[in-house]
Amino acid sequence: MKSTIEEIFSGNPGESVHGEFVKFSKGVFPDRYLVESKKQKDGWSIKTGPEYANFLVRKCLEKAKGPVEVNGVITATFDVSSKANFPIEEVKNALGIKKAVVNASVDPSKVIELMNSFPRAFFALSFSIPGTVLKIKPKAPKSAKPASGGDKELKIDFCSLKTEDSDIAKSLLFGVGETKKVVIKHVISIDSIELPKGVSDPVQIREKSKRKGKVTRIIDIEGSQTKSEADFFI
Fold first, then answer.
1. Using CA atoms, how far apart are residues 20 and 210, in angstroms rounded to an integer?
2. 74 and 100 in contact (C-beta within 8 Å)?
3. Structural domain containing residue 195
4. 35 burial class (0-12, 13-18, 19+ CB within 10 angstroms)?
5. CA distance 234 to 231
6. Backbone angles phi, psi at 52, to 5 degrees
7. How many domains does the structure of the chain reveal?
8. CA 20 to 30 Å from 100, out of 25, 88, 136, 233?
9. DSSP 184-196
């Protein structure tokens, strides 16, 4: 399983990538899919932006064996609790956003099953498995907006991962190689949006529209930057 950015740079992004990019309008979106990594003696300490939350939850749970103590929230504009085959403590509703609160011992396959049923839901879940600890802020990320000017100090702390698993680390750090500390950020540029033909429902138009643009990947290794680009039409 590849991360969204790795899929785009591989030249063969799938339907899951399309689903993640539905939220983007036409414009330039800097500082997306942020990663900060420090190589440690026995593994990696990695922090990321919210875009990687679902990827990290799935990637880690796929490696889990046996029940896992999970806590956090699953947020969506709809209630996911009816299809959750694991305990949901409560469902909170605020401004049209429903938060299913999880605080239970869970079979990992049941969470993955729910992720497959609701790929657009946001799984802000924290847990630990042998060799890996994942912590995600239990809240929904802010909506994507184009750049409006002005520099802001980068703060990468939505997801926190400590892992000995090189497979998970390499999925986030592809193209970096061996290094002690690295910061990676991406600029998403949406040049045009192709609307589906023969579709009149506004929701379906948004869901089926294809976005054309490029991702600029900026890798900073101890103050030395390299850039690469990948075009997409998804």
1. 12
2. yes
3. 4-233
4. buried
5. 10
6. -90, 0
7. 1
8. 25
9. EEEEEEEEEEEPP
What is the pLDDT at residue 148? 64
Candidates 56, 12, 9; CA nearest to 37 is 56
Continuous segment of H or E residues that includes residue 99: strand 97-106
Strands 43-48 and 27-40: antiparallel
For 131-175, write each residue's pLDDT tens digit.
999 999 999 888 666 766 655 667 899 999 999 999 989 989 998
> What would the two tokens of residue 132 be?
């890996």
41: Cβ contacts below 8 Å, ≥ 6 apart: none
Tokens 């401004």 correspond to 95
- AA identity, residue 100: A
Q: Are 146 and 130 in contact (CB under 8 A)?
A: no
Residue whose pair of structure tokens reads 């039409």 in the numeric block = 233
Q: Is the pTM of this model over 0.85?
A: yes
CB 23 within 8 A of CB 143: yes
- Tell me the C-alpha distance between 206 and 202, whole Å: 6
